[in-house]
Write a sequence for this structure.
């Protein structure tokens, strides 16, 4: 017997958006913020113990902050989605014919003729009216639905992954400032390349933009640390 594959078996990059954004943002923030903070402390001639405590405090505080921020933000989005679905459910109950006409108009605007648009709208309404309106009128699908917990832990884990290398470099490197600069730029280049590959975007522009902001952050904090730091004994 011949086996037929699904017509839509190929993966799509947009299905990764719900976790890719949180993960890349978390790792980027962890790497840039922690490396920049430690660069400023190193430029101020802070001791190794101070660098270790500062780095670990930045890692923990940043991870919790990222998780909380993502959870609150995505929870608000989820609340909005639930409110839209409740409103649409009420409209379907009170004005079913008007909602059918509305769905028909949507399919007509996408290129179907009048009869076919009506037939499709009628078939989908009989199958699952709320699902049809959620997808084609509001733009909500199960794949793209907001997930606060997923965004929160993805951000926290990614932040820790980005923040840990600068902490280790600050503690173990002989030349802390040089080590932080090299590690941060290489890490940012890698993050830019990975995010571009996962998102199907050009690699070099993604690497370039994150590295530019990394250089700005590192040089700014190094200048502040050198200006207000203590003189080495």
């Amino acid at each position: 017997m011949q086996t037929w594959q699904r017509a839509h078996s190929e993966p799509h990059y947009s299905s990764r958006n719900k976790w890719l954004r949180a993960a890349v943002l978390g790792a980027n923030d962890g790497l840039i913020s922690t490396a920049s903070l430690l660069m400023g402390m190193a430029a101020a001639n802070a001791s190794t113990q101070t660098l270790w405590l500062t780095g670990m405090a930045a890692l923990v505080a940043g991870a919790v902050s990222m998780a909380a921020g993502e959870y609150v933000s995505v929870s608000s989005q989820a609340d909005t989605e639930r409110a839209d679905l409740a409103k649409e459910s009420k409209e379907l109950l009170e004005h079913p014919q008007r909602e059918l006409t509305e769905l028909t108009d949507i399919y007509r605007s996408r290129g179907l003729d009048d009869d076919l648009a009506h037939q499709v709208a009628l078939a989908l309404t009989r199958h699952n009216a709320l699902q049809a309106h959620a997808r084609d009128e509001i733009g909500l699908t199960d794949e793209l639905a907001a997930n606060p917990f997923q965004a929160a832990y993805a951000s926290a884990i990614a932040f820790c992954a980005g923040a840990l290398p600068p902490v280790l470099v600050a503690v173990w490197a002989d030349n802390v400032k040089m080590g932080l600069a090299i590690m941060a730029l290489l890490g940012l280049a890698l993050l830019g390349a990975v995010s571009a590959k996962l998102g199907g975007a050009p690699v070099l522009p993604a690497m370039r933009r994150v590295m530019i902001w990394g250089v700005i952050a590192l040089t700014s904090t190094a200048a502040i640390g050198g200006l207000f730091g203590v003189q080495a004994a």
Remarks:
- Confidence is low (pLDDT under 50) at residues 1-10, 12-16.
- Residues 48-94 form the longest helix (47 residues).
- The radius of gyration is 25 Å.
- The helical segments are 17-43, 48-94, 96-109, 114-138, 148-172, 176-199, 203-228.
